[in-house]
Design goal:
This protein is of the alpha/beta class. It has three domains: 285 residues, Aldolase class I (TIM Barrel, Alpha-Beta Barrel); 91 residues, no CATH class; 112 residues, 2-Layer Sandwich (Double Stranded RNA Binding Domain), CATH 3.30.160. Helix content is 39%, strand content 19%. It has 17 helices and 14 strands. It has an eight-stranded parallel beta barrel, surrounded by eight helices. Helix 8 links the parallel strand 6 and strand 7. Helix 13 crosses helix 14 and helix 16 runs parallel beside helix 17. It starts with 28 loop residues before the first strand and ends with a helix.
């Protein structure tokens, strides 16, 4: 890796920059370029029907500006524009945008593609970077500026030929971030002088990071510099179009909004050339997570994943922000415990989302809480408890959680995979609930001793299948049954913990009891019992726990 052939990107000398103290307070204007920039980067471009389906999805999501293609580039692109217009498929509140190079024949064909549209944005571009001017085109600054100016003049003359369409114009100095900043100001101002934007008909100046070359803060500096230097700023819409070559397009876009930009171009999931464009979903959802209306609706985020994967033939990474299959899932025990406690605390303030490790409520994007915690060998008692609570309404005492988590960890270790909630429930019941070996309780009767609160029990049990009758006294039926078992099996038992609650899982069993019992040697048994009768569930829990001690 020969790092010596690379040169550091120059920074901006802006000691009085304002953007670091700015905050984003509202959503920018959004423009999807999925159907142009995104589509042109696919190994297999979308068919006409797929583009139509994707267009409708973008409209449903809330995009009011959609770049539909480069009509002069191919018959498919031209045909798509005509289909939208001829079949009146563009909603009145949506403006389609098309791209054109600053070349006369391409501009003219672009306007032919738009004839009959109610509204449209014509996006003019030419490359302005030092490298492109020197290596690709061999043009001077003056020649490059003349190309942009002549293209802008042709936009106006062609638009005048179609007075029934309300045209808006956009200019992009392509490879803006590789352009000398003062020259970028000059060429944009030259276009502004031609277009003469007004408050009613603003000009979009799109400043693309066509190839991401520097840290995100440098892009923000460049945008602030342009906002300060461009003519007629009040009648301009400053637009961003960041690529992700350094992996920081989202950050660059957010900082550039803070620096004064009004508009963002991007694609769903960051599709685009090389490493892609700004992920417009991530930017919108980041704004949403700060309590600001993003003005885009991703409340059914899985539908966005589905249409994207099907039409682009690309995959959404499971760790993709907000939409990935695993982004609301914790495997780590400490994370699971924190999430569980946060979800419980949310009951006190349901109007304010504050759950550790979860930036937003999964339900806001159409996800359930079921996969928040997935159990494997790295999980702890909190995660196991969360699954049982959320999925089956089973609330294990803390020590019980710890004992059961060891069972699940061992199972996950041996199977080398995570354990599904249904399997966790089954393992819990198999190991702890209504245990019948070696002891099983068949029936019992309570006897009033006449000694105050003391009760006596006579219970019929089996021990390894052999019927036995045990009797005992105590200050309640549970205490009496425990003493009966102590007397018969000649052990000393102590109930360390006892809990019970109604069950949300199942239709017949309506109550569950949990018990923790220890003997004189410190051996501990955990057991649970279920029944529609709370006394029966308690006695079954004791039997289940004692079976752990004497087995």
């Amino acid at each position: 890796m020969n790092y010596t052939k690379y040169r550091p990107y120059p920074t901006m000398n802006m000691p009085n920059r304002k953007w670091p103290n700015a905050v984003i307070t509202k959503a920018p204007i959004w423009c999807s370029v999925d159907l142009r920039d995104g589509n042109q980067s696919l190994e297999i471009p979308m068919s006409l029907d797929e583009k139509m389906e994707f267009f409708n999805f973008l409209v449903k999501t809330g995009f009011k500006e959609i770049e539909i293609g480069f009509p002069a580039a191919s018959d498919t692109e031209f045909e798509f524009a005509r289909k939208l217009i001829d079949e009146n498929l563009i909603p009145d509140d949506v403006v389609v945008q098309v791209l054109t190079q600053s070349r006369p024949e391409i501009i003219k064909k672009t306007f032919r593609a738009l004839k009959g549209a109610k509204k449209a944005i014509v996006h003019l571009y030419n490359s302005t970077s030092t490298l492109q001017r020197d290596v690709v085109f061999g043009n001077s600054m003056e020649q490059t500026t003349e190309l942009a100016v002549e293209g802008a003049k042709l936009l106006i003359s062609e638009a005048e030929k179609i007075p029934e369409t309300d045209f808006f114009f956009q200019y992009s100095p392509e490879s803006f971030t590789g352009t000398e900043m003062d020259y970028a100001v000059d060429i944009c101002n030259a276009v502004i002088d031609v277009i003469k934007p007004t408050a009613q008909k603003k000009l979009i100046i799109n400043l693309p990071s066509t190839v991401e070359m520097a840290t995100a803060n440098v892009y923000a500096d460049q945008i602030e510099y342009q906002c300060e230097k461009l003519k007629n700023r009040e009648n301009l819409i400053i637009s961003l179009h960041a690529h992700n070559d350094r992996g920081t397009a989202v950050a660059a876009t957010e900082l550039a909004i803070m620096a004064g930009a009004d508009r963002v171009e991007g694609t769903l999931f960051g599709n685009g050339e090389r490493t892609g464009n700004t992920d417009i979903m991530a930017v919108a959802m980041n704004i949403f997570s700060q309590g600001i209306d993003p003005e885009l609706d991703f409340s059914d985020i899985d539908s966005a994943v589905e249409i994207y994967q099907r039409t682009t033939r690309l995959e959404v990474h499971p760790r993709h922000p907000y939409a990935g299959a695993l982004v609301y899932t914790a495997f780590s025990g400490s994370h699971q415990d924190a999430i569980r406690k946060g979800m419980e605390k949310m009951k006190e303030h349901p109007d304010r989302w504050e759950v550790p490790y979860l930036a937003i409520d999964p339900k806001d994007v159409g996800r359930s809480y079921d996969p928040i915690v997935r159990i494997n060998s790295q999980s702890g008692k909190g995660g196991v408890a969360f699954v049982l609570e959320q999925s089956y309404g089973l609330f294990l005492p803390r020590a019980f959680q710890q004992d059961f988590s060891l069972v699940i960890t061992k199972l996950s270790d041996s199977s080398h995979k995570d354990i599904a909630p249904s399997a966790i429930k089954d393992v819990f019941f198999d190991n702890y609930v209504d245990g019948r070996s070696p002891i099983s309780i068949e029936k019992y009767k309570e006897v009033n001793t006449g000694e105050g609160d003391e009760v006596a029990i006579e219970a019929e049990i089996t021990y390894y299948g052999e019927p036995i009758t045990v009797c005992g006294n105590g200050n309640g039926i549970i205490d009496a049954f425990t003493h009966a078992l102590e007397k018969h099996f000649k052990v000393k038992l102590e109930i360390n913990d006892y809990r019970e609650h109604s069950m949300e899982y199942g239709t017949k069993a309506r109550a569950i009891s949990y018990v923790q019992i220890s003997d004189c040697n410190g051996k501990i048994g955990f057991g649970a019992g279920t029944s529609s009768n709370i006394i029966k569930s308690s006695l079954r829990a004791i039997v289940s726990a004692v079976n752990k001690i004497i087995e």
